[in-house]
Predict the structure.
Amino acid sequence: MTDNKSVLVISAHAADFVWRCGGAIALHQERGFDVTIACLSFGERGESAKLWKQDGCTLDQVKTARRAEAEKAAAALGAHDIVFFDAGDYPLELKREQKFEVVDLIRKVQPDFMLSHSAYDPYNTDHMYATSVAMECRMIAQAWGHNPGEKVLGAPQLYLFEPHQTEQMGWKPDTFLDITPVWDKKRAAIECMQGQEHLWDYYTNVARNRANHFRRNSGGMAGGRKAEYAEGFQSIYPRTVDEL
Ligand SMILES: [Zn+2]
């Protein structure tokens, strides 16, 4: 690893990071952070309907195709690294040993902040499970008694990125990130997701709407900052400050 600041994204399925925090990935990478993306599964069973509609499709073929798409999208965003855990989806389930592998990755990356899904998702329990794994593994990575001698983790913020069908998820953003300078990269990554073309314009609209929130909360009509595209995040842990 380098001395750069770092970010760790924990994505339940191969494509999730693209729609939900592709802008944050590209932006921080441009700003000198090393962004590592961990895909806990390929979304091979649950999020690859278009591939399964082809005759004679096999699980391995779907995994290979989804992996290739995710790698291409990560490259389009300029991500430092992408790691696949192949833990299976629908349902996503990590064994104890696999959780320790996630802990190893967290300790290796030593992220300044982490990104994962909303804490509640009745439509896609894999997503909220991934968040629970992220919090659990963050906790283990902080434990001095886990693999003593290794560098323990500090206290990186965990930002929850915007879910699909936002209003049903109990997700409430408290942070808006202006991703206008890297929008072209996010759109290019979105277009790597050939199997989910129905979502391309949907997530372009989401980014435009969140830019409205960015403008409104950065000063509104009294000097709010112009932003065309933004992403919203909900933070889990308190900030520690010297001034408000
Ligand atoms: Zn997903």
